[in-house]
Amino acid sequence: MSPRDHIEIDGVRLYLAKPLGDSPPWVGREEVLAQLIAAWSRIDDDDVPLHPRLLGRPGVGKTTLATAAAARLGLPVYALQATMDTRPEDLLVSPVLAPDGGVRYMASPLVTAMIRGGAAVLDEGNRMSEKSWASLAPLLDHRRYVESTVAGIRIDASPEFRFVTTMNEDASTYEVPEYVHSRLMPQIHLDFPEEDEERAILQAQVPFADGEVLAYVLTFLRRAHEADLHYTVRDGLNVLRYAMKVLDRGEAGSAEEAVVAALALAVPAEELEALELL
Ligand SMILES: Nc1ncnc2c1ncn2[C@@H]1O[C@H](COP(=O)(O)OP(=O)(O)O)[C@@H](O)[C@H]1O
Ligand SMILES: [Mg+2]
Known about the structure:
binds adenosine-5'-diphosphate, binds magnesium ion
């Protein structure tokens, strides 16, 4: 393992996290990208970026939008997945055993973004408990700092630090308390992409896809949306990738056969029948 970068704050050595690598470019829906970038802009030295939340059903592109906006602003991206078990130290600084038997303080991706001046993407923030959100309260107002009780230090955010959280509207574990809600503004809603946007997304991410296979997958997605089934462009990407593998290995005689083979492993038979895809 290569040694991690570290810095010292008040005599405490903090080991920093690594940013994400390249993420997929944002396709279509320029207006939500513009909303996020506006929320993150600083129009004056005294101005501070806002901390928006991205709302929408799973697979609509919330995480992709967050990383794409950061990339547009030239910011390194630090991502964290929130769960119902996320503790304040997971968000801030956690202690681990050092090789010499002492304690090493590891900055979370969020704290690393604060120090480095990057964008922190807290995914699925609606799953996280009030106790964890409370540890971010001073960060998300004019104070812009966090206090790590584990390391016994206060950490200030760089002026370039940006924060966004994504929330799945249908999967909350806890009610996010009002004083936190009011810090997570504005709210940006994402809807499912239109069919031509879905095509562009699939083409951008699976550029080697066969045109006929792509057309079948788009038909599947369109019928699934019309029937109000939960399938999204993410499922479309997986079906498309698998169908292309089957085709490439010579295990299907045609594009249609390859897609049917892929759908059989992704969608229950009765749904395929209802969508008239069998
Ligand atoms: N507008 C878009 N541009 C590029 N890729 C997209 C777009 N919308 C969705 N995707 C793709 O769909 C998949 C699901 O998107 P994701 O951001 O993970 O959704 P969410 O976070 O809302 O669950 C990803 O592979 C993502 O790259
Ligand atoms: Mg996501």
